[in-house]
Amino acid sequence: MTKPLALVYYERLLPGSQLVNRLQDLGYRVQTIAEAALLVKTARKEGPLVVLLDLVTQKANICGIIKDIKEDAETGHIPIIGFAGQNNKALHTQAVKAGASLVAFDDAILPQLPHLLEQALVVE
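^ thats the sequence. predicted structure below, dont judge the formating
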């Protein structure tokens, strides 16, 4: 049986690397993306079950990339979970407006990950 794939983009080592480890513990194959600009192309090619994005980035317009993923005919169905610190509430709002399925605080993403994944993967 093939494990489900999660694409993960992060710049901050913590919580990014911890998130990768937690996803693997939950039975996911994890592919990390080093360049945010490759997210749409990689999502098209790999067909992940979910995409998890660190919203705090210096290298990319992550909300623009969320919008691109959601507007693409081949990737628009993929749930996106974003994460950022509590001090970034405006960024949380922007990510939801761009199309993120869920946005979590950094300190909640790891302990609540199974629930967040379950919620994001509900078919409406």
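The chain has one domain: 5-120.
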